[in-house]
């Protein structure tokens, strides 16, 4: 029935309808609104990572019709990058964005929720989080710190890094000064390398001047932006150390728990779609960036030799066992991770690996 006919038949005046329409918003106006601060571990404007956190905030505001407004601060704008965890934990700010391995010194188990050498690929880690009990374990790990974590992004498989010399055998790691964080760094140290920790802004100059011999960063898109091709000749793959780095959003637990169910659902849903968006952005951009590095900047793309990778893998397993022995939660998370990895590995070998091997030759890079 058309509106005019309806009004005529029921005898309701247009003025009455208008006043009823106007009255409705006063009900909404009574609902509580929230003004939050979000601090991140990322430099301003860093594509997909910082811009992803900003996108998250914007979409939460739209989806909640302005009931939650989040003001985002990049690293150093409100707190330094490595203080994000504490700032949200203490309730100084309501939300944070970063990656679990930054908190390894405080929460060793957090490392399994960001990047594990020779661990899950993005499909595997997302299956673990959403369908394999991984997110529940992550919540259990962060609860004592008054935090609620959600996956908020994924870099995909990273690159192995930039080296000023060729890497032929595992012995080439001996004495190698490399900027590589997290569990991957512990593996490089086990192989005899010297792990150097540097802020993002100092990596290029250190590599160019030979203060370090090698660095890893993210993937072609971000590596191209950093200009590493001007400082190191060899670009190695695959990124055995970070095969699917998961980015996180963390909420202060009290703030999150006190929210009505609809707002919690919106935050969870936007975190989940940001996670999907982030991986899609990386996947969409890395191929073209890699082509540019090879064709325009004449970068030498090299695969780590199989034997070297096999030796790193053995060392990675040792490192993971050592880390898992640090506390009960790390052991629990490590065992759950291993069990689930075996399950998805069995299926992935039959399904994805076989299929990818079948089509991979069609995508070979041409210099
Ligand atoms: Ca990295």
Q: What can you see in these coordinates?
A:
There is one protein chain. By secondary structure, the protein is of the alpha/beta class. It folds into 2 domains: 32-154 and 244-283, Bacterial extracellular solute-binding protein, family 7 (D-Maltodextrin-Binding Protein, domain 2); 161-243 and 287-326, Periplasmic binding protein-like II (D-Maltodextrin-Binding Protein, domain 2). The protein is 49% helix and 14% strand. It has 13 helices and 11 strands. The chain has helices spanning 3-10, 14-29, 50-63, 84-89, 122-131, 134-142, 182-190, 200-208, 220-226, 253-257, 261-295, 306-324, 328-360; strands at residues 34-40, 68-73, 95-98, 147-154, 161-163, 177-179, 194-195, 214-215, 234-237, 246-252, 300-303. The chain has a 6-stranded mixed β-sheet with strand order 7-6-8-5-9-11, covered by helices on one side. Helix 7 links the parallel strand 6 and strand 7 (194-195). Helix 6 (134-142) runs antiparallel to helix 13 (328-360). 41% of the residues are buried. Residues 15-19 have low confidence and may be disordered. Bound molecules: calcium ion (CA). Calcium ion is lined by residues 158, 216-218, 242. Calcium ion binds at residues 158, 216-218, 242.
